Amino acid sequence: MVKFGNYLETNQRPEWKPYYINYKALKDLIKLGAQEAATETVGQDGSPRETSLSVVRAFRKQDSAEERFFKRLEAEVSKVGAFTAELVSSLRNKMSVLQAEVAKVVDKSRDDPEAEKQRQALLEEAKKYADEFLALEKYVNLNYMGFHKILKKHDKNIPTAPCRQFYVAHLHNQPWVQGNYSDLMVQLSVLYSQVRGDQLAEAAGGSAQAFKRSTTKYWIKTDDVTAVKKIIIENMPVFVFNPENYTGDSQLVNSVYFDNESLELYHGRLDKKPGALAIRIRWYGPNEPKGKSVCFVERKTHRESWKGEKSIKERFTLPEERIVPYIEGEYTVEEYADGLRAKGKSEAEVEKASILFMEIQRTIEAKQLKPFVRTQYMRSAFQMGHDRTVSFTLDTNLIMLKENPEGHPTCSLSGRWYRDPKLPIHRTEITKFPHAVLEIKLALPDGEAPPEWVQNMMSSGLITEVHKMSKFIHGTAVLFPELVQAVPYWIDDESIRESIKQSGPDPNEISSSALDANAAERHSRKPRRRGLDPAATLNHPLLGEAPTLALMQGSGQDKEYMETPWWNPFYRHDGPRTSIPQRLEPKTFLASERTFLSWLHMAITLSSIAAALLAFASTAKKTTDPMHALSKNLVEFIALMLLPLGVFIVAYALMVFLWRNSQIALKQASYIDDRRGPLLLATLVVSALSAIFVVSCMDLYDQINSGQFTPSPAPPVPASPPAMEFMH
Questions:
Q1: How many Å from the N-terminal Cα to the C-terminal Cα in the chain?
Q2: How far apart are CA 444 and CA 454, in angstroms?
Q3: pTM of the entire structure?
């Protein structure tokens, strides 16, 4: 394991070296502080309980290593903050100059070679500034990690004076940590778009609507988000739907999902049942929805894609003041239709919206649905205007929280449809997702591949596909572990394990079903170690002793551990698996069985030939000539070469069949083809046949040399009848 000091030295930018955290100096001060703490004595009676203002005390050194450590730590934090602000300011100035230069050539004809040359130069300049922004983010992340590491080392070496928990909160409030520089990404996106000369599609219709649309979701590590944004904006602009609700390159999205006490909608979506519903109410922007503010009532319906059906997403708008009456059934479809007609909507539009209005309202009433869980995130969208042939959404700062607060009246009882923002949020009522979620939406003609840059990004290692990932399903499973009957496969992924633990119940809250009275009493008397992070003792009912899944690349797995030994094609890793459970079709087992039967057919053929040869050899006349010992046993030799080979093929085919069926049953998206077995068996067959050929050639050579080999005589030519016989 590489020590952080060496890691910092290796990954820092040489020209910025003086502005990184001085990790070695802080570590040396911690060592001195630990030595002082070990030699410091208070007296025989320990820490005094009383004091006197008139007693002269022994001289104590004021400039202790501990004090110097905190002074140096604060100086390092200020140094990093000042340098970050300087870099951001310099980058803004450079981009402003570049924007002015782009404005000079943006209207020039693309047929002008000189103007095209200028555009390429400006494009390279923009890419250079994007790389500088990535370097800045790496600088911030390295220093941020360094401060976390040094505070952890301090508490470990000086447990009598823990400071990590307090100082980390102080660190989080630093401008260089909390700063929002995403407006630089928007500025870069505009520059790229202008230099490329993007033609944005109009809102009315679009060719993409005639094509089949596929959606795939990916996880992105937080420190890779900017790198992914850079790749996208180099090829596609940021799409700003409503500039008033955007902060930088994104806008806040809140979605309130509905369900009942049996989690009927959750389990339906998790199992992908045909017709499974998801009903939510969504609003955009940082402000609390009130009065006339627009909210979107949405319904998602799952359809089986293998049947040629498409999942459906439908929605209509309502003002916030109408949401509660709508949920309670007091706001009728007739009133809604009259409102649409007053806005000038056509009868066809009114009828379509009214049907959806009525169906969702009836579903809420019939299934006794209520506000259950909320998802909140900052969403960035990337697409060419209203052309959705290729589009992206990137969700960051993702959290899920319970809509009905613990220890307070539910939304229904308080006459609300979303949680009262004035109420405090307990740790068990919220879960923070540690990764960003990227959604790639492609609406391409059949047979057409995605653009090359999209394919390169998919295979870059920066994004990890998570099949059918759902924020609603994740939030419900984590926040309501006592109600769920099944959980999504990604729950036990090691990269999100710690975030799930943070939503787990207090370890001191032990139910009577878990421990008896005596055990509970012993647990309550157990002392807590000083300086121990409370989060380290947290757990979650859904988590096992160790993670069994590792979806993210580089999430703690060793390369040596991940590789499969060449000599064992069926090697199974003992740690978390990196594959994703997939849909299981019955024909998969039948295909495996057909493959097994094909191997058996070949094995039976070889074995039958060998058995027939042995039977023939047992009845054949043997020669006693010592010169022909090889010839005497040639048939047995051939049979004994083929018979073990046939038995080996049967055993190997059975082993592969059982292994493949077990892999299929696990629903793992991994290779289940036997890549080495056919080569091995083909080699053995070729070797056996080659040996038989060589031995046969030797036997033939032996017979020729001994003079006993004579070619078969030609058949005799029949004699012609005498001519006289025909005359008579």
A1: 114
A2: 13
A3: 0.68
